[in-house]
Design brief:
alpha+beta; Thiol Ester Dehydrase, Chain A; globular
Length: 174
């Protein structure tokens, strides 16, 4: 699942390179709005497995817990187009005793244009009762280790965060 190795570096931002598939696009050749979620969640699942040796299925079976989506906030800034290579970044920007917030963003392949930003709020629940429960200690270790520092999620506006990500993308592109 996840075993904290104090001698190991755990990145706080993950990235995947993906191609936009024809089957996921609308007649205007834009990625369908609902498909952004599939691209983000598939990328995140692959990223955390590879970078952190974290397996949500193992968490489900061993701890009898899971995260369930509570809320999304999404901004469609520029379309992702059919057959376009894009970059998907994801990072944990907040956690408390039973909640996590994952931030996703998408850029073009060269990382010069921001295309989309998504915040997903998830609650930690018992799979037996369906009720919220506190994160297990091993999960808290994972969250503390992989959370992006210096994001004041409880006090930041989504649109202000989009502006900050745009600036980050522009500064990397220069």
């Amino acid at each position: 699942m996840f075993r904290l190795d104090p001698g190991r570096h755990y990145p706080t931002e993950t990235e995947s390179r993906v191609i936009i598939r024809f089957q996921d696009c609308d007649p205007l050749q834009h990625l369908n709005n609902a498909k952004y979620f599939d691209y983000y969640f598939n990328a995140r699942e692959d990223q955390v497995a590879k970078l952190y040796d974290f397996n949500p299925g193992q968490m489900f079976h061993e701890l009898r817990t899971s995260w369930v989506v509570y809320q999304h906030q999404i901004a469609y800034i520029r379309p992702a187009l059919v057959s376009e290579w894009i970059r998907i970044a994801s990072r944990l920007i907040y956690h408390n005793e039973d909640t996590i917030v994952t931030e996703f963003y998408m850029t073009d392949d060269a990382r010069t244009h921001l295309k989309n930003v998504l915040w997903t709020v998830s609650k930690y629940v018992s799979v037996d009762t369906g009720k919220r429960v506190p994160h297990d200690p091993i999960i808290m270790d994972f969250l503390k280790t992989t959370e992006l520092p210096n994001v004041d999620y409880p006090h930041i506006d989504f649109n202000d965060r989009i502006k900050a990500i745009k600036q980050q993308v522009l500064s990397v592109a220069v």
